[in-house]
Amino acid sequence: MRDETLASSATAAPPSRADFTRVAEAHRSALKLHCYRMLGSLHQAEDAVQETMLRAWRGFDDFEARASIKNWLYRIATNVALNMVASRSRRGRLMPDQLGSPSTERPRGRPDAEVLWVEPYPDAELENLPDPAAAPDARCELSESVRLAFIAAIQQLPPRQRAVLLLADVLGWSAIEVAAVFDASVASVNSALQRARSKLATLDHDARPVPMANEHQRNLLERYVRAWESADLERFVALLKEDAIYSMPPWREWYQGRRSITDFFGAVWPAYRGFRLVPVGANLQPAFALYSLGADGRWNAHSIQLLALDEAGIGTITMFMQPLAQKLFAAFRLPTILEA
């Protein structure tokens, strides 16, 4: 096959299922990322792309091959994701700082199992994916459109507006192409897109990566690891921006500002025997798998950390804690016990 279109003509033979399978599998990773953006969940995205492939296989005989198979697959995936959103009673996925004001006291009780939390996405799943900014009409670069802040923000859009925004501004589709996904008019698509852009602009998020010298970032992260592994609270806090935010889903509590974060970790760290940090890739941001030392001398999976930083320091620390972390360690292909 010369390209992805599987386009038919008066003289061309109809595409075979073997052709379809090869082309569909080539788009699996990109489709999963699209579903992740729609759903805010790594695990739901996997379910959605599996359902997409199943529906596409079953509907192959009705595929007329007059246009791009990629667009056909995205149309199926988008509608699968919309159905999944509708099935969860319109509840969107959230981050703790979207639920209320910052906390001033340590958490009490248990993690909130009722809230649907935004999940991180492994960088390993992003390898060799094309940057959507290469599309003429795309407004978002890959590094911006997978950042945790962007994913959390777009979950607050109505599902249909979210889908329109992703297809148009992230994938660079024309209004005509987007309209075909919903069997809608171009005018209605343009209206939904304008509303989505306006709503997104009002949300408090910082999705655009801040350019930073590699050496400075490397130095900052090395100091961060040393501060954790030595439980040096003073050095840890010195790396934070004055208005830094720390959150820890599935706990609802979150903390803002050096003093508040200092008080929290000053109370929590003494309960631990030690920490080890292992670099991982998530949402194209600096990230670590955190292990804590148990009484049996083993390093046990604790949490997945994502950082947002710039030249001034660390602005956001998001730690995905247990029990949410348990399935995230598996998804990131990380051991639950770290070998010494």
UniProtKB/TrEMBL annotation:
Main enzyme class: transferase
GO process terms (BP): DNA-templated transcription initiation
Pfam family membership, one: Sigma70_r4_2
A GO molecular function held by the record: sigma factor activity
Cited InterPro entries: NTF2-like_dom_sf (IPR032710), RNA_pol_sigma-70-like (IPR039425), RNA_pol_sigma-70_dom (IPR014284), RNA_pol_sigma-G_actinobac (IPR014305), RNA_pol_sigma70_r2 (IPR007627), RNA_pol_sigma70_r4_t2 (IPR013249), RNA_pol_sigma_r2 (IPR013325), RNA_pol_sigma_r3/r4-like (IPR013324)
EC number in record: 2.7.7.6
Superkingdom of origin organism: Bacteria
Domain SnoaL-like, chain residue ranges per copy: 222-278
Segments forming domain RNA polymerase sigma-70 region: 25-91
Assigned keywords, A-Z: Nucleotidyltransferase, Sigma factor, Transcription, Transcription regulation, Transferase
PANTHER family the UniProt entry points to: ECF RNA POLYMERASE SIGMA FACTOR SIGG (PTHR43133:SF65), RNA POLYMERASE ECF-TYPE SIGMA FACTO (PTHR43133)
Family of this protein: Belongs to the sigma-70 factor family. ECF subfamily.
Protein name: RNA polymerase subunit sigma-70
Source organism: Rhodanobacter denitrificans
Organism placement in taxonomy: Bacteria, Pseudomonadati, Pseudomonadota, Gammaproteobacteria, Lysobacterales
